[in-house]
Amino acid sequence: MTSAPIRTFAELLDSARRCNKPRMAVAAAGESAVIASVAHAMKEGLIAPVLVGDAAHIQEIAARQCVDLHQAEIINISNPVEASAMAVRLVHEGQADLVMKGLVTTKEFARAILNQEFGMRWGRPLSHVAIIESPDQSRLMLLTDSGINIRPRFNRKIAIVRNALSVANALGIAVPKVAVIAAVETVELPAMPATLDAELLRRMGDSGKFGPCVIDGPLSMDNALDSQAAEIKSRRSPVAGHADIIVAPDIETANAIYKTIRHLARREIASVVIGAAAPAVVASRSDSALSKLYSIALGVLTSQGIPVRL
């Protein structure tokens, strides 16, 4: 865990440079933004890559981008599903320290990670954690879960919160402020069951079940992000306007937020899947090379061993 909070992507890269260089296996690596981000990460001294995919296509992309891959190991497997299995197997067998998703669906990639024979199961549920810079670049903010858990039940939301808290701690946030999002700020049953989940998570946070953190919910998105909006609605909370972690009620909400940040607001974003034996860098296939670089840096940081919230 870092000693001071990492506030920007530039600081994230700087922290990753100071880590021990891990071997990163890239599944289905034959994609332009993936090759560009891996090459950039190599140049920054972040990783020693193992590219698993169609070797000829990988080399073709590298030549087109004028990228030197001589220091990268390439394993020739053209089928994306088989490439995912091989990349995960390398981690399973101790030949890689983290894995990255290339041009393969998240569903197929996650299936390889969870394979009982060669996967990366570790006894904890998986969840997707994304990070963005706050508008004033005063801190990094986390969003979960936009990539793994479709419609999580309450017990799975507990694991999602714990995984996000672990990533926040790795980023140097000692006492994260967690906003559990809903459409309204009061429990509304039976119409809005997510509001009850949010209330129960808040109570668990108050009782110390999650360790050092402050959890509030249900909070609407404007209250979580804007203290003035919360004040207008008479919502007084240390989380309102200062949330470090945004916990969405389901994957549809979180994924819409993720894609809006990336494609409407044109902001860079980084992401990682936590809960397996090693981190998995799982940027969206449509993310930029720079976002993928930041995701690699986040994967490097979390591969160093992050505190687990039990």
Beta content: 15-25%
Helix coverage percent: 25-40%
State the major sheet: 6 strands, mixed
SS class: alpha/beta
In words, what does this structure look like?
53% of the residues are buried. This protein folds into two domains: 9-122 and 276-304, Rossmann fold, CATH 3.40.50.10950; 127-264, Isopropylmalate Dehydrogenase (3-Layer(aba) Sandwich), CATH 3.40.718.10. The chain is globular, with a radius of gyration of 19 Å. Helix 3 (55-64) links the parallel strand 2 (48-53) and strand 3 (73-76). The strands form two sheets. It has a six-stranded mixed beta sheet with strand order 8-7-9-6-5-10, with helices on both faces. The chain has a five-stranded parallel beta sheet with strand order 3-2-1-4-11, with helices on both faces. The protein is of the alpha/beta class. The protein contains eleven helices and eleven strands.
Q: How are the elements arranged and paired?
A:
Elements: H1 9-17, E1 23-27, H2 32-43, E2 48-53, H3 55-64, E3 73-76, H4 80-92, E4 98-101, H5 106-113, E5 127-133, E6 140-144, H6 154-170, E7 177-181, H7 193-206, E8 214-219, H8 221-225, H9 227-232, E9 245-247, H10 251-264, E10 270-274, E11 280-281, H11 289-303
